[in-house]
TrEMBL record:
The active site is at C127 (nucleophile). Belongs to the MGMT family. This is Methylated-DNA--protein-cysteine methyltransferase. It comes from Nitrincola nitratireducens. Involved in the cellular defense against the biological effects of O6-methylguanine (O6-MeG) and O4-methylthymine (O4-MeT) in DNA. Repairs the methylated nucleobase in DNA by stoichiometrically transferring the methyl group to a cysteine residue in the enzyme. This is a suicide reaction: the enzyme is irreversibly inactivated. GO terms for cellular component: cytoplasm. One of its GO terms (biological process) is methylation. InterPro entries: MethylDNA_cys_MeTrfase_AS, MethylDNA_cys_MeTrfase_DNA-bd, MethylDNA_cys_MeTrfase_DNAb, MethylG_MeTrfase_N, MGMT, MGMT_N_sf, WH-like_DNA-bd_sf. Pfam families: DNA_binding_1, Methyltransf_1N. It is an enzyme of class 2 (transferase).
Length: 161
């Protein structure tokens, strides 16, 4: 059974969804990829509780990676892209081409962009770390201002270490 809760991040309200296997989604309120049916509201799901704890640590600059069971639903190709996103080091950015190269499919740049845009687990699967080949910020389901804020947070915290 799927359960969900809300989380008030410094960048706005998020909806978190989990199942027995792990985290299914983490969406900002403006994202269009959130499913219409989320399941039952829960304040005591261990995955959701741990997700909130780790997000709090991330926003406080005390966490650079997440250790959560992930259970996002997607195609095999999308899953490969989302896995590659998790390989981008904290405080760094990769281009869509670098992701395509990392999954062994260098000609799939556009498909990588589409899969990146369908990532249901914002921040934790760090699609915000993907930028255009020119170095410009490109689309982010949570909004470009949030993407810029997340990259700035990581840049500032990685300089401190």
């Amino acid at each position: 059974m799927n359960t969900y809760t809300h989380y008030q991040s410094p960048l706005g309200r998020m909806t978190l969804q989990a199942c027995e296997q792990g985290l299914l989604g983490a969406w900002f309120e403006t994202e269009t990829t959130m499913p219409k049916y989320l399941g039952e509201k829960s304040e005591n799901n261990p995955v959701l509780i741990n997700t909130i704890k780790q997000l709090d640590e991330y926003f406080a600059g005390k966490r650079t990676s997440f250790t959560l069971p992930l259970a996002a639903k997607g195609t095999v190709f999308q899953q490969s892209v989302w896995q590659a996103l998790c390989e981008i080091p904290y405080g760094e950015t990769w281009s869509y081409q670098q992701i395509a190269d990392a999954i062994g499919n260098p000609k799939a740049v556009r498909a990588v962009g589409l899969a990146n845009g369908k990532n249901p687990i914002s921040i934790i699967v760090p699609c915000h770390r993907v930028i255009g080949k020119s170095g410009k910020l490109t689309g982010y389901a949570g909004g470009l201002s949030r993407k810029a804020s997340l990259l700035e947070l990581e840049k500032m915290k990685s300089l401190v270490k």
